Predict the 3D structure of the following.
Amino acid sequence: MVISHSSSGPGESAYNTFSSRYAGVELPRYRMPENSIPKETAYQMITDELMLDGNPRLDLASFVTTWMEPECDKLIMDSINKNYVDMDEYPVTTELQNRCVNMIAHLFNAPINEDEKAIGVSTVGSSEAIMLAGLAFKRKWANKRKEEGKPYDKPNIVTGANVQVCWEKFARYFEVELKEVKLTEGYYVMDPLKAVEMVDENTICVAAILGSTLTGEYEDVKLLNDLLVEKNKETGWNVPIHVDAASGGFIAPFLHPELEWDFRLPLVKSINVSGHKYGLVYPGVGWVVWRSKDDLPEELIFHINYLGTDQPTFTLNFSKGQY
């Protein structure tokens, strides 16, 4: 609707929808209204409609948490008017993102030095992160097939049938065959043995889950890595692993530090993680980190200069809020 500073009628308060002349006006639902209404009235009407939503503080079922410290709310509102894609204009925001990427890479035992920058990017949750990781695997596989003079029109990815829907989206949107390992009674995660059996020369990667959407259970990434190492040796392939750590990436390093699931395993080339599944963080924040620069094909990174200096970008969208 159009919001303006239009005044109310004589004796009417625009701040009270119920006692104003707008209380009896039915606004069109699917078309722009012919006339404007006061901004206070528009706010009241939208707020009233939103009252029919559930109470987010009582929502325990949507894979996000719904409360943050007041200081976090203030930080978000202080920065909500920044278009984060303009790194030249907001260099400190960019630096904060880079610090987070490096913190996460070190947490996941990436083989980088203290003074070396990690390879990664913040995303709109783990869904975008998985899309970016999948695209990197697909492009790197296709490049290798081209070099070898082999067909590259039938890529596939191996996952468990328990994967989150974003993996199905990636496969369908980017034309990759999804080969799912079926679950069995009493074993509700991907079986590494069956997964490796499904791998072939067209497999761009095997996706393991650290924290199943259905049960929260960790898949055995260590066993998957060991089995895949052997298969790669036998076949001459170089099939890598991606770890979807959306639900476990910020739990395992602290509660199970001895568990080997991350970049300590040589075939793990990228990891995604969500920031909003653990507590005290609003939805909409995630990251993807790569083992090394070699695991992210350079041709997927765009360089733009129409906002100032050269700025590398690897995201599915362009304009992006600071949070």
Summary: The two ends are 26 Å apart (CA to CA).
